[in-house]
Amino acid sequence: MSKRNTLICTVGTSLFESNLRNLSAKTPNAPSNWEEIKSAYDSENWKKLAVEINKVPPTERVCGAEINTVEETKRKNWLGLENLIFLVSDTPNGKNTGIFLKEYFSRRNDLNLKNLDYEVINELQDERPKDFKIHGLRNLVRSAGYYINRFGGPDCIAIDATGGYKAQIAIAVIVGQALNIPVFYKHERFSEIIDFPPLPISFDHEILASNSDLLTDFERGKVFTSNELGNIDEKLRVLLTEVVADGKSLYELSAIGQIYLTGFRIRNPKPINLLPANNKKPPTFRDDHYPIRFKDFVEKLCSTYPWIVTANSLPYDKQKSIKGIGFFVKEENGEKKLVGTFEDKNNFGARFWLHITDESSLALAWAADTLNQKYRE
User: Fold this and answer.
1) Burial level of 314, CB count in 10 A (0-12/13-18/19+)?
2) How confident is the model at residue 321 (pLDDT cuts 50, 70, 90)?
3) Most buried by CB count within 10 Å: which residue of 120, 167, 263, 298?
4) What is the pLDDT of residues 246-257, one digit of tens each?
5) Of the candidates 69, 82, 85, which has an alpha carbon nearest to the alpha carbon of residue 5?
6) Is 260 helix (H, G, I), strand (E, B) or coil?
7) CB environment 40-79: b (16+ within 10 A), e (fewer)
8) What is the pTM of this model?
9) What share of the chain is helix, strand, coil (3-state, %, to 5)?
10) Which domains occur in the chain, in start order?
11) In this structure, what DSSP letter does residue 323 have?
């Protein structure tokens, strides 16, 4: 088995706010060049600071938790560190810490890094707690998912969750445990890093299958009232967060919900059994009045995706519940169907049933999610 090659690090601001701001001759174990370090920090000269910190052994506390833990993790015999990514907070100190860390590690020729960068996570800040909870933590999950996919998937990744807000660290740990990725952490009083072993977590993809169109709306930032949602399945409720505004309960996707969606997509980039159809048939339609462009849309789907065998229209029922283009899995008489909806500019809608080459629960969930990401309106 090849070594993991990528380390994704959550980043706090303790290097600046705790270590460097108060650095002086009285600081325990102050480095010999502490005055140069303090001067570079005070003048916000991050390049100069990187040069000076590079003169200090990376295991020294003054270097900060991020540098300390990277130094320890690179000694793991299963980690061949090639890519180093820092996820920083959406604050001035967070961004500046990211700039400094990139400058610092760009001078670490002993690491031979192929990719080195930092990313500011939008809304990961402490001035607006609501935005932090709903948007910041979700954006953290999205960014982690992006880099996990970019650098080869979970088998190539390790996560350093030492720096950052407590909730930020907790979410990083959950991402790692959910995707079978080792996660490391080091408290300032610990002599070495500790790891959180992956847990045997399984995803209930039935939740995604049945609510794929709705979860896509949530992921795109839509908010729904309890009246709009009706009776919420308790399994779905776990993925949502409730906010009370003007006396009304509003539901949005939570950070755990984002982990659920991101984790499903990372684990299932393409179901292995969803092969091209060798018995494709033209879609069939009942003798009904249909929305404008409805037939064209269904025919386009069938011709675009080789794993769609055919499609047929469904009877008109619950017409008012049809909202835009969307896909979900519905079970009727013990049979699971991949159902699509289509609504035209006159708010006239219709439903159709897509038949695919693999109609297992996992493949149906993947197909619904894939189509919603592409066409959901």
Assistant:
1) middle
2) confident
3) 298
4) 778 889 999 999
5) 82
6) helix
7) bbeeeebebbbbbbbebebebebbbbbbbbbbbbbebeeb
8) 0.84
9) 40, 20, 40
10) 4-196 (3.40.50.10770), 205-375 (no CATH)
11) -
